[in-house]
Amino acid sequence: MKKLLNLYSPFVLLVIIGLAFTACDRDFTSIESDIEGIKNFENNSKSFPIIAYNKKLNPVQTNGLSSNLLGIYSDIYGKTTASVVSQVVPTSFDFNFGDSPEIDSVILVVPYYSKNVGTDAEGNNLYKLDSVFGNGNMKLSVYENTYFLRDFDPETNLEQSQRYYSNSNQTIDFDSHIGELLYYNEDFVPSSNELNITDEQTAAPGLHVELLNTNNFWDALFFFGDSDPESKPELSNQNNFKSYFRGIYFKAEEGEVDNGIMSMLNISQAYILVYYSSLLSIEIDPETGEDVEVRDDRFFRMNFSGNILNVLENDPSNTIIQDADANANMVDGDETLYLKGGEGSMTVINLFSGETLDEEGNPVNSLDYFKSKKESWLLNEANITFYVNQNELNGQEPDRVILYDLANNVPIVDYFFDTSTNNTTPLNSKVLFSRILERDDDNRGVKYKLRLTEHLNNILIRDSTNVSLGLYVSTNVNDIQKADVLNSNNEYVPTGAVLSPRGTALYGTNPNVPTDKKVLFEIYFTEPNN
Question: CA nearest 427: which of 404, 448, 400?
């Protein structure tokens, strides 16, 4: 009898039937009932109660991100405006400007994210932009920033790095620290055209503009006109330079087209090329007899590095998130779950909240019932399915959401078990753990499905705590670094959620939600058929 019981333990069953099922692209695992040597087990599924409710996010940390957003995006949550502030540093401080240097031009290059889709008849590269949201325009201004961005937080005795948050235009107000206007375009739209950096050099699409030199701003910045500009202490090292020239402010404002446009910038790869010339000699023009300067063309490069942060501003007249947070139902869950990236909203999820029916039809505590199956259930797969509430939406839904362990501020363990990581095309990364949004024939979102099999195995087999989970939208599920939430003790959000301008609305768990639209928490398992 003891040997028979051991045969049916989950661990032995796992070895025997592990090769007999594949769960990568099905709603549940199918295990043949005639596996050699075992005839008396069956596959079952059971739905368990779940509570999900809304939670507003306080301002989120926006420095140290992998990318940055710039522009205007509109959806059910109103307009979100994303601006960028960045420090800029020369690649070298071994300057040799020569005699009588003068600025010729200053070129700004900020790469977009794009894909090469071939070439045209002339052999020019063709590109398609990634991560562009909306189809309108925006007003774009580029200013000198005069606010000094500290590296370390003085409130921690300079022991911790300084954090900058999405609400920086309320706390710092970069609009009050504007220096020289360096670029302006009241009808800016990101272009997918290949860039011509020089006559011989091309680059993938990006913001590629000549910066203004009003009042000889750039000449004065590098002390051109002084007798020995390269000896200035401001140009001697990185720290001195960052204190002297405090960076660039990309300010986005609403354009003439109401719905605006927002793009993701690869700011960490941005640079400024400073073209100048120095005097080589003075010669006499043989035709006029006048003195003519012979000049040497030179340039140097400045990279965007150090502190780079996003300023995110939500429409203050739109109160969907505030109202949902104020009326969150932590007992029955909310009717509609509002998810928005940035300084937005997430969903708190409590698994096994409530009672379930046992084999005799009696109501029992659902978590206790689940844990009682430790010796008799082999979990094949477990999923949570969220249905999109199209009655609430008027914009494009994000393709991905991500499920977090809120106690430890990391994705649930199934994220790390998923080997489908794709760093080249993040949309197709971790698709076993979190499926890409299923859409209907009209391209409207239908449902998100997330796998939490290993998370439940930890609860069932290893007696892990049934922690609260968090659901976030994500522009890139590979971005799971922690961004701090202002004035929230030990609360963080994944950086992929900070960088997601898109929001969505999902049906929740409240009793008023139609049964076929409620959040579905379902477990598929194998057990002995005694």
Answer: 400
